[in-house]
Write a structure and sequence with these properties.
By secondary structure, the chain is an alpha+beta fold. The protein folds into 3 domains: 112 residues, Beta Barrel (Elongation Factor Tu (Ef-tu), domain 3), CATH 2.40.30; 258 residues, no CATH class; 48 residues. It contains 14 helices and 11 strands. A hairpin with a 3-residue loop joins strand 7 and strand 8. The N and C termini lie far apart (76 Å).
Length: 474
């Protein structure tokens, strides 16, 4: 065999191909060198080889569904298909056997590997097949064939507790348990006559009157501003832009007008009055057969109050005050007076527990501005629950005690989860006053957060921020 002549022929052919490529590139624009400069040296798991070419398959995974008496099928898209790459390469040299053995060790290694493809770049792949081809007449030259499949992370679906729904379920459980314990006490007390039934009316009157009054709270009415589009300054914030202002928005509807808000507020307050009237009627007709109607009307009042408060923070504040209602009327130590006291206590317990459930429901929609804010709301709600658990435990009301315990756990889990991803509040100390823009750029590397700092620090003027203030840590 004339090896020298064969090598000369190969070189001549390669030179001719190079000249043809340069001529074609010149006609189409650019140069052949610009293409080859973009190619990367091929390797697998760090073992280099010369790439002769490759084939790649891309696309999507589709499932064809065909139905009787329907000419066209429905194609269900199941996502992007796995990318498959077939590569051809070679190694050459006096140490070609060692190069092949190193490649064999690489392809027999378990797990995914890194492929450097000349045009696709760096890829994480799994080897599906490898072949090494030897020809005796080619001597120091071994050919390789690879079959690669794109590899991804080994991930599994993770179960995550729907904490908000858990709170709502626990609230429902509390309402059922509170109604059950109320019925047990009330059915025993009403046997002592009309005086006891009158206690229901008087106690209910004081509670639902208080409920009607709190929905007219000045701050609650002021919260209606948050549904108006636009920014009303650091004290009010904006309904359409997220804010860390003193009164953050919770219900964003940019199409609201002043007239529509007045109408909505009027309707909400009217609904509270309607629910209170329903409760008054249920109290007036209270007897052994209408216990369920009365307890449902109590829950209707708290639901109406919750719907009449625009901001969850106000909902928590107002319903918390409703949960501390204490009847004014006293009772005697006589037999009937004791029964009246039991009925009054049972009504008061029912009112408090229903209100606490509404507070917990409001906390599930509250959007904390920081982890500290989430902890504050969590502690406020759990303090109410803890106090009521003590009352239920002292009275031997196991159903209510267990329901309150379940609610407490749900509230803690919900607010801990939603507050965990938020920044904490930090005290900043500065040597001298600075403008809010400069301070936002210095603290957060983001001057657009200047308004957040102004809302948190509450300076006399944004150009002169106080030297000591509390704001988000990051």
């Amino acid at each position: 065999m004339n090896i020298g002549g064969g090598a000369g022929a190969v070189l001549s052919t390669a030179s001719g191909i190079g000249n043809l490529a340069s001529s074609l590139a010149a006609r189409l624009g650019g140069s052949a060198a610009s293409y080859f400069e973009q190619l990367r040296p091929a390797s697998y798991r760090g073992v280099p080889f010369v790439s002769l070419g490759s084939e790649a398959a891309f696309g999507r995974r589709n499932q064809v569904h065909q139905y009787p008496q329907r000419d066209t099928p429905w194609i269900e898209d199941l996502g992007r298909g796995a990318r498959r790459i077939r590569m051809y390469g070679f190694v050459i040299g006096d140490d070609v056997i060692m190069q092949r053995d190193v490649m064999i060790a690489a392809v027999e290694t378990a797990g995914d590997g890194e492929l450097i493809h000349p045009t696709l770049g760096r890829l994480n792949v799994n080897l599906d097949g490898f072949r090494s081809i030897e020809h005796w007449e080619r001597g120091r030259y071994f050919e390789f064939q690879f079959e690669f499949v794109e590899a991804g992370q080994r991930t599994y679906p993770t179960a995550e507790t729907a904490t908000t729904q858990s709170v709502l379920n626990a609230v429902t459980g509390l309402n059922v348990a509170a109604a059950l314990n109320f019925a047990k006490t009330a059915l025993n007390a009403i046997a002592y006559g009309a005086a006891v039934l009158g206690t229901v009316v008087n106690t209910a009157l004081g509670w639902y009157t208080y409920a009607k009054n709190i929905v007219g709270d000045a701050r609650n009415l002021f919260q209606l501003l948050f549904n108006l589009p636009g920014d009303f300054g650091r004290f009010a914030g904006s309904a359409t832009v997220p804010t860390f202002s003193k009164y953050p928005s919770s219900s964003v509807q940019s199409n609201q007008t002043t007239q529509s808000m007045i109408e909505a507020a009027t309707t909400a307050r009217a609904n509270v009055s309607t629910a209170a009237d329903t409760m008054a009627a249920a109290a007036a007709g209270f007897d052994a057969t209408t216990v369920d109607t009365f307890t449902a009307s109590v829950q209707g009042v708290t639901s109406a109050v919750l719907a009449a408060t625009n901001d969850p923070n106000d909902s928590i504040r107002l319903l918390s005050s409703l949960s501390t209602f204490v009847p004014d009327a006293g009772t005697t130590t006589s037999v009937i007076g004791t029964a009246m006291g039991d009925m009054q206590s049972a009504c008061s317990d029912l009112f408090r527990r229903t209100s606490i459930g509404a507070v917990a429901q409001a906390s599930s929609t509250y959007q904390p501005t920081s982890s500290d804010d989430a902890a504050r709301v969590r502690d406020l709600v759990t303090d109410l629950i803890d106090a009521e658990m003590t009352v239920a435990g002292d009275q031997g009301e196991d159903e209510t005690y267990e329901a309150l315990s379940t609610l407490r756990a749900a509230v803690v889990a919900d607010l801990n989860k939603r507050g965990a991803g938020l920044s904490s509040i930090k005290t900043f100390n500065l040597p001298a006053p600075m403008p809010s823009l400069a301070l936002a750029a210095r603290l957060y590397r983001d001057p657009t957060r200047a308004d957040d700092l102004v809302a948190q620090a509450n300076p006399v003027h944004p150009a002169f921020m106080p030297t000591t203030f509390k704001a988000l840590a990051n």
